[in-house]
Predict the 3D structure of the following.
Amino acid sequence: NGLPGKYYGTEIDLGARWTGLFWGTEVQLGAEGGIFLPGNAFNFSGNSGTKMDNVTAWRVISAIHF
């Protein structure tokens, strides 16, 4: 039954984008991803002592500009 702490956690992000020009048309491709490592502020109260799981997210980007 301990109280949660004040540390929210750490977020790590990484991404890359590429832009090219083909016959007057701009093409853009990319990918981004991140992970959130929760801190002690997200500890659940109670006797179980469980913690919040890591949270991950990613996305793929594509665009064509005429």
Residues 1 and 48 are 9 Å apart (CA to CA). DSSP finds no helices and three strands in the chain. The radius of gyration is 20 Å. The chain has a mean pLDDT of 88.
